[in-house]
């Protein structure tokens, strides 16, 4: 008797794409996972015989669910305590080798995407990151193709004006990260200062749940002393700080008892660290457990 294995469910086949789409649109791991779950419920109830192109159907579903979530999230973020930063996401080590993919999920890019309107963000992600045509996106969003082209042009221009190209040399980044960890472990302020750009800025996202800076810190001296001061606090006893690939770039992960308690990502330019983003909000660390 000959048996055949059941065909792979299209949802399982495209699950990673669906999560990647939702995460880039929302900047939050927890919301992206919720969207994927909601998309599965929609898919499970759908009449499969009416779905001619499962991948397009699923991407459209995730896109529109994400748009609804993003619209409501903006009102919530207006009341957020302190700086709002995207949720960090542990990524595969080889992602850092794929420059285009790494840039699309980098913390710096997610911060820029936050400055787009919901529809502009959806169009940009679908077009510039995943390569969908304007016609396909128009179908996803139920909008005329000429309107989608205009939105795409506007969003691309907006991102280009705010997006800065930082160094992407992985070997240099590994060297800087390890030097930074060594200097912090030894409480060597001078060594830390040597790695910071003079006009470095640091943001801390505690969301009002844990102690964190309510405003950005500017300048190498302020930022360097802040970092050394945090690591010297008694509460940091027993905390392990290690390198980890976060959002496609080698960064810093803080662990207590094997559980993540925070992350530090940064941009690298001219061999110096700038735009340091520290995530310590316990509600935004799920992506560091993946």
TrEMBL record:
Domain RNA polymerase sigma-70 region: 11-74
Domain (RNA polymerase sigma factor 70 region 4 type): residue spans on this chain: 109-158
InterPro entries: ECF_Sigma-70_Domain, NTF2-like_dom_sf, RNA_pol_sigma-70_dom, RNA_pol_sigma-70_ECF, RNA_pol_sigma70_r2, RNA_pol_sigma70_r4_t2, RNA_pol_sigma_r2, RNA_pol_sigma_r3/r4-like
Keywords carried by this UniProt record: Sigma factor, Transcription, Transcription regulation
NCBIfam families (UniProt xref): PRK09636.1, sigma70-ECF, SigX4
Assembly and oligomerization: Interacts transiently with the RNA polymerase catalytic core formed by RpoA, RpoB, RpoC and RpoZ (2 alpha, 1 beta, 1 beta' and 1 omega subunit) to form the RNA polymerase holoenzyme that can initiate transcription.
Protein name (record): RNA polymerase sigma-70 factor
Originating species: Streptomyces katrae
Classification lineage: Bacteria, Bacillati, Actinomycetota, Actinomycetes, Kitasatosporales
């Amino acid at each position: 008797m000959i048996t055949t294995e059941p065909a792979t469910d299209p949802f399982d086949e495209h699950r990673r794409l669906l999560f990647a789409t939702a995460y880039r649109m929302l900047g939050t791991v927890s919301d992206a996972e919720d969207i994927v779950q909601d998309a599965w419920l929609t898919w499970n109830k759908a009449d499969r015989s009416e779905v001619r192109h499962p991948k397009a159907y699923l991407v459209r579903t995730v896109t529109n669910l994400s748009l609804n979530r993003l619209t409501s999230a903006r009102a919530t973020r207006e009341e957020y305590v302190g700086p709002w930063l995207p949720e960090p996401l542990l990524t595969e080590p080889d992602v850092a080798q794929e420059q285009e993919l790494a840039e699309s999920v980098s913390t710096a890019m997610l911060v820029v995407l936050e400055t787009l309107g919901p529809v502009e963000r959806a169009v940009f992600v679908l077009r510039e990151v995943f390569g969908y045509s304007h016609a396909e996106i128009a179908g996803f969003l139920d909008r005329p193709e000429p309107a989608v082209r205009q939105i795409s042009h506007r969003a691309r221009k907006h991102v280009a004006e705010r997006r800065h190209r930082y160094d992407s040399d992985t070997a240099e980044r590994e060297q800087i990260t390890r030097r930074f960890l060594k200097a912090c472990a030894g409480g060597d302020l001078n060594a830390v200062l040597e790695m910071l750009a003079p006009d470095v800025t640091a943001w801390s996202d505690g969301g009002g749940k844990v102690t964190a800076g309510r405003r950005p810190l500017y300048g190498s001296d302020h930022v360097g002393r802040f970092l050394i001061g945090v690591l010297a606090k008694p509460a940091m006893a027993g905390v392990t700080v290690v390198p980890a690939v976060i959002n496609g770039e080698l960064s810093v992960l803080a662990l207590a008892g094997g559980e993540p308690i925070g992350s530090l990502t940064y941009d690298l330019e001219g061999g110096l660290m700038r735009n340091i983003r520290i995530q310590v909000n316990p509600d935004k660390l799920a992506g560091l457990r993946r």
